[in-house]
Amino acid sequence: MTVSEKVTASSRRPDAGIRAMRSGAVGSVLEFYDFFIYTQAAAIVFPQVFFPVSSSSLSIIYSLGTFGVGYIARPIGAFVLGALGDIIGRRKTLILTMTLMGISTFGVGLLPSYEQIGIAAPALLVFFRLMQGFGVAGELSGSSTLIMEQTPIGLRGRRSSVTLQGAQAGQIFAALIFIPLSAFMSDHSFETIGWRVPFILSALFVIFGFRVRLKTVESKKSTAVDIPPIRTVFRESPGALARVFVMALMNIIPVTATVFGASYATQEDYGIGWHADVYLWIPVVGNVVAVLVIPHVASLSDKLGRRPVIIGGSLGAGLLSFVYLWAISIDSVALTVVIAILMWGMLYQGYNAVFPSFYPEQFPTSTRVTGMAIAQNLGTTVSSLMSIVFVALVGPGTSYGKIVAVVGGLTLAITIMSAIATYLSPETSRMQADQLGVPGAVPMDEEEYQLLRQENLAKVSTRLIG
Known about the structure:
mainly alpha, 25 helices, Growth Hormone, Chain: A
């Protein structure tokens, strides 16, 4: 091969940032593929398969409780895997997270029912959820950091957002498998065999994910000093930890829409009784729109700043939660779909598309993965447990008006708290990489930043494939 041929081949080879983008996208596909199939199974199937108790309310609460158990494991995983990411490197930790996610998701699909092995069935379900929650805790923080640290200023928002594009795509893939099974199989067949298929097929995502992830390049500098990141981040960045924790409570929107919303719309005891295959199309449509919207919203955060985009999206989605629940209450599938597109597919992406860059930018390099992992997973855990709180406060038999008022009111209150925390956080879009997480750091001049951003846009492709 001649020198010119080598140069041409090198220019065609994707840079480290593109490889990190691909790795982050695939990891998020697996994480949220599992999220979708588990939330839907927990709301629609698991009450009958693993928790056949006499009280329908208790059955739903127990089932959704296993969903919440996975989030309880996340803070533990965040401390362990976040610290590993800052000590041994982002890449090695991400390989470990994919291993844990793969084993746990595949394992759920092989579990016997309560009728077959009794109490051991829900116990094993809880075990796999704990493993999955532990592994997921290091995925998003590690992937976002790996991408962000290998991306020039002015492009960090757009590139980091591929992790959330992968998240929405994972839910779409899951739905395209889950919905036909639910629609064309009898209730008995679906409850015994059908729901297991999506979990078992997750093995294909894991195999592909390993091939992509092994090609990534470590972003942690070899000269970086290995310090105890957990103790350091609590000592040096307590404000950033607190703000990211509160901002992460924005996870309440998908909890309200796809976890509580699924139970509310499909469980007959609530009096609405949509068939599963009808309701499952609602988050699919919202996610399809989200995949298209995310890169544009993320690019907007590179241009205008992270904070205004997050604040606007958070408050708008919170307000529409009332309308979404009301649309289900009046048994209007068409209106529910329209509101889902606006709330979930568009407005929520103001937060969802931007936080993968905004969160790691709040911390210095030495504690970046640890800080984001701990704060984001704690916030996500607290908000996810709200699905149990909702059912406990407004269980089957509660009037529709009270359900809308209580669940919508709590959802809006939490989004307001998240918006306030965002406002109190430093704007990081115009910060140079070595200034991120540094107290008192001054952002670049607006005009200088925009010129540099345009220069980087011209030099570097922000496409996932290319």
